[in-house]
């Protein structure tokens, strides 16, 4: 392992960090990712200028945002002499990078508002988690926005983070989440960000390539029944290539197939209607499907932790 940790230690620290995230949730004040977001906004304002060097400035901004903080996280782990202190540092880094409880806390209230037929509150809550326009969104459109966010961010905020933690410990999780955050902030194809954010988008695509496909496979495995698994697999293979994002396509198509509902379709971004391909198969999603999407993400988390612990136990037995 690049982290220098044994696999059994990695598995235990993964469980500990997920439990901390579910127990405490996000830090209310001074969250490191919030501070990083503020740094990213400052760099974008300073370096994103018109001209032939706009792409190069985007590369420089990415390096200035990510590399020093990754190096600092790595040095912090190396500087701690006691193994217990190192383990605590790795666990806290993973905890700060995870967003499992945040997904639950931001999305389940949308399902509750839709169950009360309170579209005004559902639109307000949904606007906090997606960049699309929700001012006149219907229940189906709000459900799609929330379910798609759960499925995609299950990969970005949970499974991709766990994947890079397994490879490179706490600094790996920090690196991945910073790269993912920059893609979320700079990776839009707007006139201002198209060239500047291109590097951030491509780097995130590379870091997310394997995690996204492992997430899609997990959604297939956890689909109900053999028919559900076959449907999720077929949706992944048939629909993902049509999606703009090489990683969101497999994740959301397999997830929609596992849920047995239709997602995707038209949505309003930055004042313009974007005609996106259909994802999944079955009836249109409704508010209750948000809860089902959350349960799929939660069960996938349990699957990943279970596999990690089982693999660690097997390695301990075979090396005993």
UniProtKB/TrEMBL annotation:
User: Could you name the Gene Ontology cellular component terms for this entry?
Assistant: plasma membrane
Q: Where in the cell is it found?
A: Cell membrane
**Pathway recorded for this protein:** Cofactor biosynthesis; adenosylcobalamin biosynthesis
Where exactly are the transmembrane stretches of this chain?
Answer: 7-24, 59-81, 157-176, 296-315
Transmembrane listed as a keyword: yes
Tell me which UniProt keywords the record has, alphabetically. Answer: Cell membrane, Cobalamin biosynthesis, Membrane, Transmembrane, Transmembrane helix
InterPro entries assigned: Cobalamin_biosynth_CobD/CbiB (IPR004485)
| Coiled coil feature spans | none
Q: Does the keyword Disulfide bond apply?
A: no
A Gene Ontology molecular function term for this protein is: ABC-type vitamin B12 transporter activity
Entry membrane topology: Multi-pass membrane protein
- The lineage's top-level taxon is Bacteria
Q: Which NCBIfam families match?
A: cobal_cbiB
Quote the protein name from its UniProt record: Cobalamin biosynthesis protein CobD
The organism is Duganella radicis
Tell me what gene encodes this: cobD
